[in-house]
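dude i think i finally got it to work??
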Amino acid sequence: MGSPVDTYMVDQLKRRWPEDWTKLHVYFVPNTTEIKPLVDAYRGVIEDLDCVSPQPDQWLHATLMVIDGIPARDVTEQQLADLTRRLEQAMADLPVFTVTCGPAVAGRSTIALDLTPDRGFAELRTRATTAAAHVFDADMARYSNGRPHITLGYARGEGDSGIIQTELLHATDMRVPLTVNAVRLVDVTADMGRLQFRWNEVAILPLKS
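look at this
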């Protein structure tokens, strides 16, 4: 038996994300062509789980930074322009790199694709957080949620991670390379009914090619 799967993460999110808010995030959004074969290999397992809400393919992402404590609508035009400029400068001299995506891991509240190695994503997080801390209070520009990952589904009920992990293991042994050539500043809506995240794109910040 594995550890329990439950709605802990979603419950925590509801406490700090008012229903009428959207929030600014910095995301890595994978190239659809690169990630699709791996996602397709796991979809059948995830869609058969009553305790998990799948994340649609078009909204798959890895979170690098969150502007917390303020809704996006209250961010001034000057703050947004300053944030965009600082993020652009922070990413411009970081060379494009590749990560390995997979396998899928069943955790306490999610099923997520692992991303390795960590080093490149750690640098992206540091640069994004440092840039945002020049515009907002440092404690508003943060993100800490373990290893780099792309979430495929969020728990909406209770389950057993051991059983789920076994099914994921049997689904595929595939790994795919993902090209990290840009990050995106996005305005994110949390759909608590579907347990999904959607966004409007604010800016694309390219890495050094």
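The first strand starts at residue 4 and ends at 5.
im so relieved honestly
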